[in-house]
Amino acid sequence: MATDLLESLQQQIVPAAGAATLSHGCLVFSLAPEELMPTVRRLKEEFGYDLFLDVTAVDWPADALRFEVVHHFASSRQPLRVRLKTRVAAADPGVDSLAKLYGSAAFMERECHDMYGIAFRGNHDLRPILLYEGFTGHPLRKDYPKGREQPLVPYRN
Amino acid sequence: MAARTVPIVPAAPQGAKDGAFEYLTTRKDELVGWARKFSLFPYPFVTACCAMEFMAVSASPYDTDRFGAALPRFSPRQADLLMVVGTVTHKQAPVLLKVYEQMCEPKWVMAFGVCASSGGFYQNYAALPGIDRIIPVDVYIPGCPPRPEMVIDGIMQLQDKIARAQHPILTRTF
Known about the structure:
The complex is a heterodimer. Chain A is of the alpha/beta class. Chain A is built from 3 helices and 7 strands, in the order αββαββββαβ. In chain A, the strands form 2 sheets. Chain A has a 5-stranded mixed beta sheet. In chain A, strands 6-7 form a two-stranded parallel ribbon. Chain B has a domain at 41-64 and 77-164: 3-Layer(aba) Sandwich (Rossmann fold). Chain B contains 5 helices and 4 strands; from the N terminus they run H-E-H-E-H-E-H-E-H. In chain B, helix 1 (28-37) runs antiparallel to helix 5 and helix 2 crosses helix 5 (148-164). Chain B is elongated, with a radius of gyration of 23 Å. Chain B starts with 27 loop residues before the first helix and ends in a 10-residue tail after the last helix. The chains are: A alpha/beta, B alpha/beta. The A-B interface holds A 130-132, 139, 144, 146-153, 155-156 and B 90-91, 93-94, 97, 123-126, 128-129, 132-136.
């Protein structure tokens, strides 16, 4: 069952850019940004991946495509998780929002936007969710200074 | 059968003075300080894992009630000891300041644990590096989390501080 699924996923969703790998029981695809939306739609509609787990990002400061946006999916019917990695450049760090397919994606994309500054196209509410209004910068990027403080209350001395 | 005799103590005549406990001599500041140090009403501003230690020190094995500091008031307007228990973030700092400003004088602040005292091991975009950046602190209790003995020591040090302090509500008529 699991191997059948694995084979069909690997054969049908393998993108042009990269091959799928199996990592700790999780099938990993590397995608180009424009492949993300069709891939997710197929995962949801054809393979039954009905649970959106998480979206986060990885900052690779030395790479040309600096940010790697990572989506995780699970299914209530399939015994295999799926991870999608999408590389985007620092100049235009944006991918399509999945909020139309999975309602829960809206808040998680807000958090990812807080921390990494990834712009999710189609998510119209990217206000700070963990950070606060007025916070400048994205603290989990590698170039955010470790000791930089942005206090909301002025210090006493 | 002999009649049982009950000694009858005559009531003191009106206006007469009894020798015992008619007068007590003390300093006014000491009297008020003594009363205040045994009636600390804490407001627990509990944000993080130090809460477990706060519960341990409040419960009967360590029992902060012995120091008169057992009854948490869940309104800052009824409290006079602000116990900041746990990490305070920059996002939360306005809330802490608002709670502090709602408390009536006299008021004291205890930084419970290393995060409240100095930020602890958090040195990042999110954590406030010590609540004394925004409000004055009377007692710092280090430790991650502090042992109950350290909390009790902190309470006793605060009691000493209160007992030694000036209590300026006293006016010329009292």
